[in-house]
Amino acid sequence: MHPQSQQSSFAFSVHHRLEDTTPGDGSGGRRHGRTGTITTPHGEIRTPAFIPVGTKATVKAVLPGAMAEVGAQALLANAYHLYLQPGADILDEAGGLGAFMNWPGPTFTDSGGFQVMSLGSGFKKVISMDVPVDADSAGADDRIAVGRERLAHIDDDGVWFKSHLNGDRHRFTPEISMQVQHQLGADVMFAFDELTTLMNSRGYQEESLERTRLWALRCIAEHRRLTDERSHRPYQALFGVIQGAQYEDLRRKASADLGAMDFDGFGIGGALEKENLGTILGWCSDELPEDKPRHLLGISEPDDLFTAIENGADTFDCVSPTRVARNSAFYTPHGRWNLSNARFKRDFTPLVDGCDCYTCGNYSRAYIHHLFKAKEMVSATLISIHNERFVVRMVDDARAAIDNGTFHELKADVLGSYYR
After folding, report:
1. Looking at the whole model, is its pTM more than 0.90?
2. Which of these, 269, 271, 267, lies nearest to 295 by C-alpha position?
3. How much is the pLDDT for 78?
4. Per-residue CA distances from 381 to 54, 338, 367, 416 (Å)
5. Which helix (H) or strand (E) holds 395?
6. Alpha-carbon dihedral of residues 122, 384, 72, 32, nearest 10 degrees?
7. Of the ranges 123-127, 147-151, 239-243, which one carries the lowest mean pLDDT score?
8. Does 151 score more than 80 pLDDT?
9. Catalytic positions, please?
10. Distance of CA 78 to CAs 112, 152, 180, 198, 368, Å?
């Protein structure tokens, strides 16, 4: 796909497999979880790893230096948003995403396909989408959220969409997505795909899957061309995206089809039912190459994280830690609590006793409660730092537990406490 000298700057190696280190888990089946290392031009990522989201080249309310202090190994930004503002050419001129935002470590960009769908049809940005109608009923494929205008229109060549910022009309194709992401300059980027919803009919899911397969081939061809043309830039790895919604045969087909292509890794995408997360991820891991990394798009809840890890996800991202922080919610070993509650007004303890984050080492619940009530912006900063550290540390602990053979004990302990 690319010159050997450039390709060698991206690599993935597996260290330990969950089924080898903890054989007596009683699951009755294979567990795809593993530890490993992703090597990029801007450093290594020890996996499994949580990748915090900096949608517009910033983790909301948190400085890049603080993200390094919480233990983040890489950050993910969004091609759709950066394409619209400030423009991919600006980041290219700045030396790429990492240089632009003063983040020295590895970076990811997603293709923009998720935003085209979610902003185009107005559905909530969650891993599971409620299905208020029979998914096979007439009109389900054209359904949009109540009170929303459709901003995106898909054809076999690409997508026309209107900017949510000013209404301007834009075109994304596989080639344009690759051009934009090459200019953004992240270490890992994703092929342009069509994200369906659980509301789409089976027939449309099949049609969309074939469209995404053909788009994947076009992404690879354009990626090759741009890699040769931009040989002065560090190599950017390209991940294919696996769709197929809740259907086993479609997920397995997508994984086999894209798994045979010349991708550097794979993203597991699409709307899916939360209760089937592990099953669906397991189908994909069965079919995908063992020697390439797998990224699960959009999760951060503790039960989802452990399910994802044991079923083969190497990395995952989510905006949730900072999003809930802006509404005063903070993570504890005993669940997620809301700091705006009056009971914290005179609570001079840290958010979590024993937490090693900057916030817990320097500020009390009472102080941050006051900041939130006073509508001071630094309240979001302090809670976000804590929440990101909480999730990063949880995944770090899971990685260590796979290596030392205690993953299932850790999972039972952490989830038993958190959801008690």
Report:
1. yes
2. 267
3. 94
4. 14, 15, 13, 29
5. helix 378-404
6. -60
7. 123-127
8. no
9. 110, 317
10. 6, 17, 11, 23, 30
